[in-house]
Known about the structure:
- By secondary structure, the protein is α/β, with parallel strands linked by helices.
- It has two domains: 34-229, 3-Layer(aba) Sandwich (Rossmann fold); 289-553, Rossmann fold (3-Layer(aba) Sandwich).
- Helices cover 53% and strands 9% of the residues.
- The chain is built from 27 helices and 13 strands.
- Strands 10-9-8-11-12-13 form a six-stranded parallel sheet, with helices on both faces.
- Helix 7 (137-143) crosses helix 8 (145-165) and helix 16 (324-340) packs across helix 25.
- The model has no long low-confidence stretch (mean pLDDT 94).
Amino acid sequence: MAKSTDEFNFDYFNQGNYLSAVENKSLSEIISKVLYPNDTVPSGKLLRFKQQYFFVSATLQDIIKSFKQKNDDFSVFPDKVVIHLNDTHPAIAIPELMRLLMDIEGLEWEDAWKITKKTFAYTNHTILPEALEEWPESLIGSLLPRHLQIINEINKRFLDDVRANHTLNEEVLSRLSIVQEGNGRMIRMSNLAIIGSFSVNGVAELHTNILKNYTFKNFNDVEPGKFSNKTNGITQRRFLKLANPHLADLITDRIGNKWITNLDELKKIEKYINDEDFTTSWNSIKKTNKQKLINYIEKNYTVQLNLYSLFDSQIKRFHEYKRQLLKMLHAITLYNRIKENPEAECIPRTVIFSGKAAPSYFMSKLVIKLIHSAAGIINNDKDIGDKLKVIFIKNYSVSLAEKIIPASDLSEQISTAGFEASGTGNMKFALNGALTIGTLDGANIEIKNEVGEDNIYIFGLKADEIRNIRNTGYNPREFYEKNSELKKVIDMLGSNYFNMNEPGIFKPIVDELLYRDYYFILADYESYISAQNKVEADYKNRELWTKKSIINTARMGRFSSDRTIKEYAEEIWKIKPCKINGE
């Protein structure tokens, strides 16, 4: 927490300038008041960089203080300390450690760099630009001129070493450089993190392959073996035992409680997929969890939900690549089908959204607005009744996820292939018996490999197919023109069907879909609708659906965070577990 050293300026106060009397205190302490300010405006960008440096410097100074209590030889620092960079946001730690070692502790460059290089590891969690941070050189120079000197020296020495040991052209060297030349020099924090770390990893097999073969290919070529994969994981103790106690008790009753610390034990419940008592209890627990969620929603919202509907959930951060818009196009498609034939048999469905958008994500916020506007029409249409409901649950949090996930039948993991690094929501849902509908993206691929192709609903273009189409040219209007259901949905958005009092508000969505569609929503629509039709056909067969649900839970052993942390500890941090109380 930031605390001002200048609490109150009496000179300003005595002059009657009361705001200035407390201005320094407010400006100092705002650093830790609110994280993630809107960095599309200069003041937000400046504050965000100040925050990153503030937390990094405080942490490093504390680490060094603790180290010096028992050590006076900094050469053993990497044997005692590993600092893991979580994306590029804390990457300023690399020049900061160099500054502390040289300017405060008196080490020479070579010794300080050797220590720094052996201390840091870097995990990349996404290839999106906002995580591969770039800061204007002028901004860093104005705030941290010493750090800019160090960054430039790191870059110079690194490039000199590459030139001496590799035959590379200037174009490749420019991609390896920390400094991006051009109209306003930028500091690439991802390049700094890679150069200053002894280990770099992705968080799913596909994601790591993209890092090695595309995003950071030149670094992988220069330092082969530096990149590795550590697929994300979740803790069963929170997302099953705590969040879904009835299901946890049922599992423990049949196979014991070893699964709590060894998730692979869950495989033992698979032998009960034909046990009538077990499957009846399994479905009863799902119904109980649905009722709990209904009670929560009806207490806080005006919509009334159908307990016997398919609970279809997409809860996650709002971003265009996660394609909440594609899910909403499907919901409107279902609405149109019911409106066209109200007497036709259909699977009732409750579509649940929750999540937050960053302050500057205009399009994601507009999708949230669309969800609310469309829900207002769909939920109050008498022709629809309880066959379809759409709900956006506000203030998404872990506590809210613990209510939604155990109640869900279908897990929406529908990101554009190649953009989702891993995902953990997909693991949490599957652990609680929800079936996944998703693209071959992130950890969906590994989930498919574990649960089997028959127990997951895969659709859409693959990452390499998207790259090829993007390179050869993509015309989204072709998909719009040839698919009547899709055309009708988009025309409804364009004709203000869901927003008569705000004409034109969804025009940016229509224009994006028809003339750009960077995230290939229209290209994947038909495949997605087909997969959703298969979901409904399977959901009608309750025995089949229950078996698939049990298999999903039973085969989640690989996705425990216990396995993930063990891999980090053994393969990156090089630490061993400690015995507690002599055990």
